[in-house]
Design goal:
13 strands; binds zinc ion; RibonucZ/Hydroxyglut_hydro; alpha/beta; about 325 residues
């Protein structure tokens, strides 16, 4: 038994139709009844939350607050449904406003894919994937919270920490008791992707891997346990964060080596790095990942982009 098992925090495991597998929401039963993330919008996910509440003699209408780590369907999709039936206040960060609005930014993505000469079939595949996700979320405008704000369920206080990268307005909630609800920032079993995304205010593409690595640098220094959005509780935070940081570095070096041999476009480099993942339909994850390393190289001055040919080169 660890010291955290005494706290009134209960994981709710929700199965999803997504490749990532089950998602975890966390129920805090305190002076307030709080749910950290909600699961996606579906009858099954709703039943799962309802059943867990019932196990504690609670009902959906008893929910007081919903704290959202970020605006991906598996984390916020059924927030509206739960809030409508409970009057719960839903909170999230404004940099994820586009996600929470279920606006998939398809125009910005199309322009981006076009500029990088991504083949039409792959572009269509990605746009269809975005479209498919729509059924699992209901748009909302949360009450906006900011980095440094304090939330409380009563006996459990939590600091709101902006930890962008995986999503532009990704939040972690760091409780006074040492539990960190960190959404998709740190997962034990898989590395999460710093997805291609755009700033909600400017429409500019974020350098998401660079943001993500800064967020990993932040969490590696935190003490306590991580209750993640997917997978089991993480007790060895620093070790897991360092593992992901080191994996990034290896892939970054591999990309530099490939570019030493010849200059390549984003898609060509992606096909060289992850051909199997592309064949299995994960093209968006692959492009996100490769672009992240290219952003990194450009920032460090080791990689350049020939804007005429849209090819990356080693400099
Ligand atoms: Zn996510
Ligand atoms: Zn997730």
């Amino acid at each position: 038994m660890d010291k955290f098992s005494d706290l009134p925090v209960f994981p709710i495991r929700i199965s999803t139709p997504f490749a990532v597998g089950d998602v975890f929401s966390y129920l805090i039963i305190d002076e307030k009844i709080v749910l950290v993330d909600t699961g996606h919008y579906s009858d099954e996910a709703y039943e799962t939350v309802k059943q867990h509440l019932r196990d504690h003699d609670l009902q959906v209408k008893d929910l007081d607050e919903i704290w959202l780590t970020h605006g991906h369907p598996d984390h916020y999709g059924q927030a509206v449904k739960l809030a409508d039936r409970s009057g719960a206040t839903v909170m999230g960060h404004p940099k994820d406003r586009t996600n929470f609005a279920a606006n998939d930014n398809s125009e910005l993505f199309e322009a981006f894919f076009d500029r990088h000469n991504i083949p039409e079939t792959l572009t269509q595949q990605m746009l269809e994937q975005l479209e498919w996700l729509q059924q699992y979320q209901q748009p909302l405008e949360p009450q906006w919270i900011s980095d440094g704000d304090h939330l409380s369920s009563g006996s459990i206080g939590a600091e709101v920490c902006l930890t962008p990268g995986h999503a532009p307005g990704h939040l972690s909630f760091v409780t006074d008791q040492g539990i960190i609800f960190s959404g998709d920032l740190l997962l034990g079993h898989i590395s999460t992707n710093a997805l291609i995304n755009f700033d909600a205010d400017t429409g500019q593409r974020n350098k998401s891997l660079l943001q993500y690595r800064e967020s990993l640098q932040w969490i590696r220094k935190q003490e306590g346990v991580v209750m993640p959005g997917h997978g089991e509780q993480i007790d060895n935070i620093t070790e897991v964060a360092d593992h992901h940081l080191a994996e990034h570095k290896k892939r970054y070096q591999k990309i530099q080596q490939l570019l030493e041999q010849q200059s390549m476009s984003l898609i060509k480099l992606s096909q060289r790095m992850f051909p199997d993942a592309i064949k299995s339909g994960a093209i968006f994850l692959v492009l996100s990942e490769v672009l992240g390393y290219l952003d990194w190289g450009i920032k460090e001055g080791t990689i350049g982009l020939d804007e005429q040919k849209m090819e990356y080169e080693r400099i």
